[in-house]
Amino acid sequence: MVDEKKTASGTAPHRALIVGAGDTGLELARRLPVDWEITLLDINLDQANKSIPGSGFQRAVTVHQGDASSRLVLQGINAS
């Protein structure tokens, strides 16, 4: 994936797509540096939205619903 956006320092921001918003996915998102852009993809949007508020994130996290094995879903969130 090529990202044309640049940060103030002139470098492209770090981005992570985490598939699954369960315990493991949320823990991984918490451990990534604060300056990373994080997108969570889960087939169960209700579970993902319930998990985010009490998870202690220091940043905004984008949540999408979909099947990560679908090329169309990945293209829809600019992850292909």
Overview of the structural elements:
There is one protein chain. This protein has 80 residues and is of the alpha/beta class. Helices cover 28% and strands 20% of the residues. Strands 1-2-3 form a three-stranded parallel β-sheet. It is flat, with a radius of gyration of 13 Å. The model has no long low-confidence stretch (mean pLDDT 82).
* Average pLDDT figure: 82
Low-confidence stretches: none
Query: Which strand order spans the largest sheet, edge to edge or round the barrel?
Result: 1-2-3
Please report the total strand number as a whole number.
3
Oligomer: single chain
- The helix/strand class is alpha/beta
Give the biggest beta sheet: 3 strands, parallel
- Secondary-structure element series: EHEHEH
Number of helices: 3
Range of strand content: 15-25%
What is the helix content?
A: 25-40%
Q: Tell me the Rg in angstroms.
A: 13 Å
| General shape | flat
Distance between the termini: 6 Å
Topology diagram in text:
Layout: E1 15-19, H1 23-31, E2 37-42, H2 45-51, E3 61-65, H3 71-76
Parallel strand pairs: 1-2, 2-3
Entry summary:
The chain is an alpha/beta fold. The protein has helices spanning 23-31, 45-51, 71-76; strands at residues 15-19, 37-42, 61-65.
Keywords for this entry:
80 residues, alpha/beta, 3-stranded parallel β-sheet, 28% helix, flat
